[in-house]
Design a protein that fits this description.
Structural class: alpha/beta
Distance between the termini: 50 Å
CATH class: Alpha Beta
Order of helices and strands: EEEEHEHEEEHEHEHEHHEEEHHHE
Helix content: 25-40%
CATH superfamily: Ribokinase
Number of strands: 15
Low-confidence stretches: 1-13
Number of helices: 10
CATH topology: UDP-N-acetylmuramoyl-L-alanine:D-glutamate ligase
Number of domains: 1
Radius of gyration: 19 Å
Shape: globular
CATH architecture: 3-Layer(aba) Sandwich
Oligomer: single chain
């Protein structure tokens, strides 16, 4: 049975703080088709009783989480074709102000396989939506247009074919020229170039950090030490790593903090890191300390795995989890 998502945050006038507007950029969007099965068993025919269609692409997912937190958000991204139309419809249903950049071709389809018996998920990506130099200039022009109303800018996700690795650096420089803080969530060359512009927050998950900086893995304490060195070497205001059961870590000039929420049995864990990004820019917009920011980030990230749609958050779940989040200095 096919069912459209029933977003939990369709209330564009029901805002916690109408002085906050978060602008998100998504260069490599996807329509997430979340398929629920009991367990993946290779070489067999598996029955999926249902699936739902959700927003995909890190920037768009940050906007989805922000709506669950009852915040205003404008989402700019490349879309195309039939899946692009479905994706825009999904975003609009959340009350997100969508500013789509339509391109020839077809938006990616991300089949998210959720195994309910094992509480785990996998992605099967189909297609890509290449961009041209002119398309890149169009997105940068949309960024400049929306910047005056933005409290923060979040630019996140992989880059599509044709997008230069300098894109996130350019975004950061343009936002900084207008006095707007930036969170960049990226990996590889795109992230390394962006670091030269010193975004207020550079964010990755544990595995992305290892891959981007050519580490061999090893003990978690060694990864933490490498992240601390990275934050200091690039003189970043903050480097944030989402680390699954190890929680969320922030590396700043004030030290290293770790926030851990109670472990949840995941319904759909896709987008949990994007939910953390949403909480970070929200709480930093309010002037929270990093300890309080991480407390919210851990709670929002944990709450997002309790919903079926990617990065979707119920504010009541966040409130329930918040009191049990532990924030401690890393020693």
């Amino acid at each position: 049975m096919h069912s459209q998502p029933e977003p939990v945050a369709r209330r564009p006038v029901d805002l916690l703080d109408d002085a906050i507007m978060i602008l998100t950029l998504t260069a490599n969007a996807a329509l997430d088709r979340v398929i629920f099965i009991d367990e993946f068993v290779p070489t067999t025919t598996m029955r999926a009783p249902r699936f739902i269609e959700c927003a995909g692409g890190k920037g768009f997912d940050v906007s989805v989480a922000l709506r669950g937190l009852r915040l205003e958000t404008t989402a700019v991204g490349f879309v195309g074709g039939y899946y692009g139309k479905l994706l825009v419809h999904v975003l609009q249903n959340y009350g997100i102000n969508v500013d789509p950049i339509w391109l020839p071709g077809e938006t990616r389809l991300a089949n998210v396989i959720v195994e309910t018996a094992r509480a785990r998920h996998s992605h099967v990506m189909i297609g890509s939506l290449p961009v041209t130099a002119a398309d890149v200039e169009t997105m940068l022009a949309r960024l400049r247009f929306h910047l005056p109303a933005a409290t923060w800018v979040v630019a996140a996700g992989s880059l599509p074919p044709g997008m230069p690795p300098s894109f996130y650096r350019l975004v950061t420089e343009i936002a900084h020229a207008e006095g707007r803080p930036v969170l960049i969530d990226a990996t590889g060359a795109a992230l390394l170039e962006a670091l030269a512009a010193q975004p207020e927050v550079a964010k990755m998950n544990h595995d992305e950090f290892i891959s981007t900086f050519g580490l061999s893995g090893g003990e978690f304490s060694a990864i933490v030490a490498a992240a601390r060195t990275t934050q200091q070497t690039y003189r970043l205001p903050a480097l944030v790593l989402t680390c699954g059961r190890e929680g969320v870590l922030a590396f700043t000039d004030e030290g290293v903090l770790q926030a851990q929420a109670p472990v949840q049995r995941a319904v759909n864990a896709a987008g949990a890191g994007d939910a953390a990004s949403a909480a970070i820019v929200w709480r930093r917009s309010l002037g929270d300390s990093w300890a309080d920011t991480l407390r919210w980030a851990a709670a929002v990230s944990a709450a997002s795995v309790l919903t079926e749609c990617t990065a979707e958050v119920r504010y009541t779940d966040v409130e329930h989890l918040l009191a049990d989040v532990r924030v401690t200095p890393w020693t």
